[in-house]
Amino acid sequence: MVSYSSAISALFVVVASLIIPTSNGVSNKVLTKICSRLTPDPDQCVTILQSDLRTASANLPKLSLISLDLTGRQANHNLKTFRELSKNATHEPKLKNDFDACVRVYKDIKLKIKAAYLLSKKGQYRNVSDLSQAKELAFRCGRDINSLVGNELGSSMVLRLYTSISVNRYIARTNA
């Protein structure tokens, strides 16, 4: 005869297996493959993707949206920071102008990321070419400002853009 506690344990295992989703997300091997093709720092690319808990259970289309979401968050952070830097650079007109230029650049970058996100939602991974333009804008903004903060912000943005570009190009190739 089956004991009461054994029956409860078996029932718990069955219910738990139905409730708890199994991880059928993109494997670490695939993340490494995605990040090693284009990004200047593949390990950091993988770290960026894994920093979002949704990645563990994401399929490739969802990974595209996650990467673009992470990239958009970085753009929002950079825009906010450049606005603050500009506001505080009242006694340094050249630096203030440079920060103001980056504010304009990041407004444009945000629009390009939003457009890429909408294309990704439609499954049009090949058409996210605006991300390459955004990458060049972020690179120039970071390079043109003679500021450690500006360089760090620019580098973080460029790496996230590379990550999103890599994810979307990988999906476009595998769906071809």
UniProtKB/TrEMBL annotation:
Which keywords fit this entry according to its UniProt record? Answer: Disulfide bond, Signal
InterPro entries hit by this protein: Invertase/methylesterase_inhib, PCW_Enzyme_Inhibitor, Pectinesterase_inhib_dom, PMEI_plant
Entry-linked Gene3D superfamilies: Invertase/pectin methylesterase inhibitor family protein
Q: Does the keyword Signal apply?
A: yes
Signal sequence: where?
A: 1-25
Boundaries of every Pectinesterase inhibitor domain copy: 26-171
Which GO molecular function terms does the record list?
Answer: pectinesterase inhibitor activity
* Entry annotated with the keyword Signal: yes
Matches recorded under PANTHER family: PECTINESTERASE INHIBITOR 5-RELATED, PECTINESTERASE INHIBITOR-LIKE
Q: Which NCBIfam families match?
A: PME_inhib
User: What family is reported?
Assistant: Belongs to the PMEI family.
Q: What name does UniProt use for this protein? A: Pectinesterase inhibitor domain-containing protein
Query: What is the protein's species of origin?
Result: Malus baccata (Siberian crab apple)
Highest classification ranks of the organism: Eukaryota, Viridiplantae, Streptophyta, Embryophyta, Tracheophyta
